[in-house]
Amino acid sequence: MQQDRQRKIRELFDEYIEMYAARDERLTERFSHNFSGYAGSGAALIQSRDEWIKITRRDFSQVPGRIRIEMLDLSLQELCDDVVMATAFFHIHLPSGGHLLSREVARLVLVFRLEAGEWMIVHSGISVPYHSAQADEIYPLQSLQEENSTLQALVDERTEALQESQAHYRLLMEDARDVLWRADPRLNIIYISPADERLRGFRADEVVGRHVFDMFTDEGIALVKGLLKHKALTGDPSEKDEFLTFEVEHRCKDGRLIWGEVTSKLDLDAQGKIIGYHGITREITERKALEEQVRQLAFYDPLTHLANRRLLVEHLDQAMSASKRSHRRGALVFLDLDNFKTLNDTHGHAVGDLLLVDVAKRLRACVREADTVARFGGDEFVVLLSELGTQADEAAAQTAAVAEKIRVHLAEPYLLQAATVDPQATAIEHRCTASIGVALFDGHEKSRGDVVDAADAAMYKAKEDGRNRIGFAPCPVAAA
Ligand SMILES: Nc1nc2c(ncn2[C@@H]2O[C@H](COP(=O)(O)OP(=O)(O)OP(=O)(O)O)[C@@H](O)[C@H]2O)c(=O)[nH]1
C-alpha cells in the first residue's frame, strides 16, 4: 500500500516536472485550494493558489520554449498517511542551446496531500541559486536567457573568428615557403612546419625530437656554435629579445646541400629564463649562387679563374698587415710570359688562351693553398707568398726556391689542344718560359705600391737580362 502511494506520488511529481518543463498551463490544476509556497529563490511566501497560478503564468510567459530538467536526485518522505513530501535536486537547462541556467543545483520541494481522494499540491518551495528574487520577480529566466544568448552569440562569433584566423594561420604555416620551427632550450626541435618537407625532404616526424644541428653541415655547426658562444659572451641581457640571423648550409634527405637564412629568437619566461627558441628558415641557395657569380666576376679572372688584380691587392694589404704583426715576411712574385705574342700570332688567340689556362694550373700547383695566385692582365701573373721566415735571408731563400720551382715548371712543354671540328687535329706542342721578379716585404714598407713596383721592376730586369730567369728587388724595397 505504502509502495503504491509512493509510486503514485512519484508519477505525479514526474508529471509536474514534465508540465513545468513543457511550460504547460495545465500544471496549475494540480494546486490545492489551501495552497502555500515560496516563489523564486524562496524569498516570498505565496499564500493562495490563485496567486501561485498568476506567478507561474508569468514565469511561463517569460520563457515560452521548453526547458530541460536534469534530475539529479528525488526523495519522498511520508509525513503522515495523507501527506507526502517530495524533494528533488536538479539542473535547469535553458531552451536555447541547452545551456545551464545556473551551474549550482536547484531544489524543489512539493508537499502532496490527499484531498477528496486526489493528491493535490499544498506547498511548494523552490530554490534556484542564481540570485535572490526581487519583489515582483519570479524566475528571471528571460533576462538570463537573453543574457545567455547574447553571450552565446558573442562566443559563437569569437569562435568563428578564432577558427577562421586559426585556419588562416595554419594555411600560412603550411603553405609558406619559409620553414617555421620551434626548439626547446637544448635546441631540440619541437615543431617544424610542412615547408621543411618540401624543401629538404624530411617529414616533420623525422625532424621533431632531433637536435637543430642535425640539419646543418659540420661547417654550419661550427659557425652557429661560434655565433651562440659570441652572443653568450658579449650579448647584453637586454638584447635577449633580438633576432639572430645567419646563413648556413642545410642537409637534404637526398644528400643535397641547400643554403638557408635562419632568423631565430629566444623564448623567455616571465623571469627572463630561456625556455626555447623559435625562428624562420628561408631558402637562399639561388641567392648564394648569384652572390658567388658576382664575387667571381668582381674578384676572379674569367679565363683562368685565378684571383684578379683587385683581389690580389686586397690580399697583399692583408698580408702586409699580418707581416707587420707577426714579423714573418712575405713575397710578391711577378711573372710575365716570354714571347707569348708569337704563340698568339702563329696559332691564334684561342690557343694563346689555352696556354694561359695551363700556366694558371701550373702556378697553383707550385704554391700552398694559402698563397694567392693572380692574373694581373695579359700574360702577367702574380704570386703572393705569406708567412715566410722572420729573417730577410731566410725569406729570400724560401722565395727563391718557390720562384725557381715556378720557372722550371712553366718552362716544361705545353700540349695545347684547340677546340676544332677536325677530329684529326693534333695538339700543338709549345715551349714557353717566364721572366720572374721578386720583392720581399715585412709590412714596414711605405705603401703597397712600392712592393708592387719593386717586383715589377725586378721582373723587367730579368726580361732585359735575357728572359727565363729570376730577378730580386733590393731588400728592403726602395720607396718610389
Ligand atoms: N690569347 C690571349 N692573349 C692575350 C690576352 N691578353 C693579352 N694577350 C696578348 O699577350 C701578349 C702580351 O705580349 P707582351 O707581354 O707584350 O709580349 P711578349 O710577346 O710576351 O714578349 P715579352 O713579354 O717581351 O717576352 C699580346 O700579344 C696580347 O695581345 C688574352 O687574354 N688571351
Summarize the structure in words.
The protein is α+β, with helices and mostly antiparallel strands and 480 residues long. The chain folds into three domains: 2-148, Nuclear Transport Factor 2, Chain: A; 179-289, PAS domain (Beta-Lactamase, 2-Layer Sandwich); 300-472, Reverse transcriptase/Diguanylate cyclase domain (Alpha-Beta Plaits, 2-Layer Sandwich), CATH 3.30.70. It has helices spanning 2-21, 49-62, 141-175, 195-200, 204-207, 218-234, 285-299, 309-326, 340-347, 349-366, 392-411, 448-464, and strands at residues 31-39, 44-46, 68-80, 83-93, 106-115, 118-127, 179-183, 189-192, 244-251, 257-268, 274-283, 330-337, 372-377, 380-385, 414-416, 428-430, 434-441, 470-472. The strands form four sheets. Strands 2-1-6-5-4-3 form a six-stranded mixed sheet, with helices on one face. A five-stranded antiparallel sheet has the order 8-7-11-10-9, with helices on both faces. Strands 13-14-12-17-18 form a five-stranded mixed sheet, with helices on both faces. A hairpin with a 2-residue loop joins strand 3 and strand 4 (83-93). Helix 9 packs antiparallel against helix 10 and helix 10 runs antiparallel to helix 11. The chain is rod-shaped and about 150 Å long. It binds guanosine-5'-triphosphate. Guanosine-5'-triphosphate (GTP) binds next to strand 12, helix 9 and helix 10.
| Unreliable residue runs | none
- Report the β-strand fraction as a percent range: 25-35%
Return Rg in Å: 48 Å
Number of DSSP-assigned strands? 18
- Largest beta sheet: what is the strand line-up? 2-1-6-5-4-3
For the record, the CATH class of the largest domain is: Alpha Beta
Topology as a string of helices (H) and strands (E): HEEHEEEEHEEHHHEEEHHEHHEEHEEEHE
- The CATH topology of the largest domain is Alpha-Beta Plaits
